[in-house]
Structure formats: structure tokens, C-alpha cells
Amino acid sequence: MIPGSNRDHPTFLRSFGYAFEGFRTAVTTERNIKVQLFVGVLAVIAGIVLKIDALSWVLIVLCIGLVLFAELVNTSIEAIVDLATQELHPLAKRAKDIAAASVFTLSITAAIVGIIVFARALVLL
Asked: How far, in Å, CA of 66 to CA of 59, rounded?
């Protein structure tokens, strides 16, 4: 619902449509999400090849989902900042840099989890 409007909320199904549209837009316009999807697919392939256990799958899927989530939030923050100002404002830079740092931090954490999971799987072969 748009603040100040009399329009009703979209239907539950229409809300899913908006979410898919947002995901498609991010994938078609953002390089980093494409890279993260590619790395996620590689992690799934590695999990299949190494026949990781159920708990390891939970960790890998959770890490993939969290990294994608963080990138989507980062992308939306960047869009909002760009909408708010076209100037090179120090606070705009700060907001964008911190949002990017959150994705970076989570990506490093996910990589460490992946190394642990796949190293363990290789040792157990």
C-alpha cells in the first residue's frame, strides 16, 4: 500500500508476483547477484558430488539463502539512496558502503562455513 493512498493491499498471490519481479530485476541488473548465484550453484554441485550429509546441506542452503538475501537488501538500500539524492553526499556513501560491507561480511562467513563443510566431506571420503 502506498502511504496516503486509499488503495487496498495487493492480494497474497500478487505479493508473490512482486517478489518474483524484484528477484528477476535484481538478477538481470546486478552483476554481484549473478556471481553469488553461480557460486551457490557450484556449492550445490560440490555437495552432490561429495555426498554431504543432511546437516551439511542445511548449512550450505542457509548460507546461500542468507548471502542472496543480504545482496538483495544491499541492492534495495543502494536504490533508495540513489532515489534520495543524486549528489555525492558523505552520508549516502556511508550508507552504501556499510550495506556493501554487510554482504561482504556474510559472504566471508559463508565461505568459511563452506570450507569447513567441504573439507570435512573430503576427509570422510
From this structure: 10
